Structures are given as C-alpha cells and as structure tokens.
Structure of Diaminopimelate decarboxylase:
Amino acid sequence: PRHAARGADGAVRLAGADVTALAEQYGTPLFVVDEADFRARCAEHAAAYGDPSLVHYAAKAFLTAETARWVADEGLGLDVCTEGELRTALRGGFPPERITVHGNNKSRHELAAALDAGVGAVVVDSYVEIARLDELARARDVRADVMVRVTVGVEAHTHEFIATAHEDQKFGFSLASGDATEAVRRVLKSPGLHLVGLHSHIGSQIFDADGFELAARRVIGLLAELRDEHGEAVSDALGTVDLGGGMGIAYTTADAPRSPAWMAAELRAIVERESARVGLAPPRIAVEPGRAIAGPGTVTVYEVGTVKDVELGGGARRRYVSVDGGMSDNIRTALYDAHYDCRVVSRTAGTAPPVRSRVVGKHCESGDVVVRDCWLPADLAPGDLVAVAATGAYCYAMASAYNKVPRPAVVAVADGTSRPLLRRETLDDLARLEVG
Ligand code: LLP
C-alpha cells in the first residue's frame, strides 16, 4: 500500500492507523484495506483511459457494498459475473447502467435479474445464452445491449503469452472456428438484443502489451469483417472494443508492473494502428482491471503462533513460521504457486541477520503455504505480528472456511481511522448453516 510507514519503534502504520492497534481491535488474521490507495488506482485508470466509464472494475477481485461505492464515486464501471456480485453492487447503490454482466453460465434467473436491474450490457458467451437472453428481453419488451465474448486464441500470464489457433477452454466464441462470426449473426437476428461491441479477455497478471496487441489485432480484424458483412447493422459495435482485464501488479520486489498510463498509451497505439490497417475509425478501448485496482493496497496481518526449524539433511534447515490463517484466507500460493513477501509489523527486527523462512497456515495439510520464501527476523517469536502485502485481490474473494476456520474480518483505513467492511465470521455463523 502507498500509505504504509514504519515508525522508529518498528511499528507499521497504514494510512495513519497503527497495525498493532488494529490487530488488537479486530483480531487476526485481518485484511487491512488502504482506501485512498484503492481509490487512487481507480482514478489513475480512469485518467489513463480518458473516460472513467470505460474502466470496469472487475468485482470478482474483491467487492463489498462499500467498495462498490468507492468505485461508483470514482466514476468507473463495474464488471460482475454472478447474481451475488450484482446484488452486492446494487446494495452499494452502484448505477446499474454502468454494470457489465459476465459469465459462461448465467442462469435464466441471473439474466432476468440483470435485465430487471437495468444493467448496461451483458457479455454473451454461448448460443444457449443468446437465445435465453433474447427471450427474456422480448418478454420484457426491452432490447438488451450485448457484447460478444470472442476467444481470440491468445493466452497471457505474466511475461509470456501463447498464441494458439484454438483455445481449449470454456469461455467465449472461438474466432478461428467461425463461432464468433456466427454469434454476431444470431445476435443481429435477435429482436431482443442490440450488439454494442466485442469483448476479449486474455489472462491475468500481464506486464507487457504483446498479448493485448495480438488480441486487439484479431478482434479488430473481426470488426472489419462484420462491417463488410453487415454494414450499418453493426455500427454501434464498431465504437468500442473491450480488451478485458489482467493488468499485473507487484507481489514482491521482483515484479515491475507498468503504470495504467503506460498500458493505456500502448493499447491506444495498437488499436489505432490496427484500425487504420483495416480502414476503421479507431474504437474506444474499454478495460476490466480487478487486481490492478484492489490488489496492491491491502495487507493481511497474522499473528505468529509457532516457529519451527526443520532439519533437511546435510546441515540444511528450513524455518517454518506458522500463522493463524493460511490457505483459507489466501489460496493463491497453493493454487497458482503465487509469490508473496512477508514482514514483521509489530516491532523492529533484532540485530541478528534475518532467516530465510516459510510462512505456513494452521490448516491440516502440508500444501498450506502462504509465503514460500521470505526473510524474517532471526528472533521472530510467537505473538509477533507479520503482514503479507498485495492481498487485496482474489484472497478474501476466494476465502473459505476450510477446517472450520472462520473467515477473517476486513477493515478499511483512511486518515488514521478504521472501519470494518466485513466482520469476522464466527463459529456460530458456520454452525447456523448446518441442518439437523
Ligand atoms: N475480466 C474478465 C472477463 C475476467 O475473467 C477477469 C478475471 C477480469 C476481467 C479481471 O482480471 P484481473 O485484472 O483481476 O487480472 N483468481 C485468479 C484470477 C482469476 C481471474 C479470472 N478472471 C488469481 O487469483 O490470480
């Protein structure tokens, strides 16, 4: 987070709030969200893309009614992919016309809820959905604005991207097979639907524009074909290309993400060049960053419970530091082999050199690792507080109550004060779900 500072006594403050005091007040594990950081990243993306409503924050990264209000205040749009995310946004008073609805298996009920709420657009993902949405829209005597999700055959993660002719995955309509062209034909033939654009999403934690470049080239190539085949009927769809999310962030000092301004300038140059190539006026660019907005400004604070040095043979040892959460509040290390860093936040380190440590959770399985490798004070002891940074995206959102460990609380800090966004789950909450 941008507003983190360590005092002379080693105690860390976040946006002016003392982390140790927060841990005492709310307990641990605790997610602490730097509200100003989150808002600043919204504002930076809005400025970079010229029009805030072209930036749709991806709710899946982290959403509460309150954070939906922050996103709304900053003027951004919102991408939701379930009724749960939609309802949370609406509860926060999010303007429905700025909401885009995603998902490969939207139920009739979810589509009806989206139409009844008056969402901005639905991104259609299958022939079944096109027919389903058309029927629901006609029953309501409305025309639903839709984008067609195109599978462009580009998969990008971090520094690499793979371009394949055909993608073996569940999302979207394949461009290579002709399904994307057919999907557009069906949308244009559906009286309940109005085509407003093409959408592609190529992956996550992307640092360069290369993957986006190939995706944009293919999507714009398709736009040109649609213009040639359908003429005026697709004019609204030529106005905007949605290139999805995936903009990378720094989880550790090894990551060097680009600024929103850099990425936006690259994307604009690519879209201008590719449009010129096929004789189209350059469309507006919409994007859907989740991680890049919610990720960097949040830390997870844990209390150290045990410190154990394990003999590995040949004189090698590994230090295991057990904390009071784990894979239930951060599954990303176990699931994606994600890298994080961990620091002590309740005091200064002793003078001894730090020890390479593995931070593990309290769950009953050995894959329950939070941070695979980090340097922690040699004198780290039970009761010390440690924090893992950049946990704002896909950590709470993917949290579970595995081993009947209740989900942590989430608090927002701003100007030295804190307020809860989510209270800690209790054992009673868990017991209440049981029947009989
Ligand atoms: N738009 C669409 C259509 C998406 O599917 C996603 C992410 C995003 C936008 C936002 O991507 P972002 O900017 O946050 O990378 N749980 C994984 C990430 C899965 C993302 C799925 N879709 C993780 O923890 O890394």
Notes: The chain has a mean pLDDT of 96. Residues 210-230 form the longest helix (21 residues). The longest strand covers residues 298-313. The chain has two domains: 4-32+297-432, 49-294.
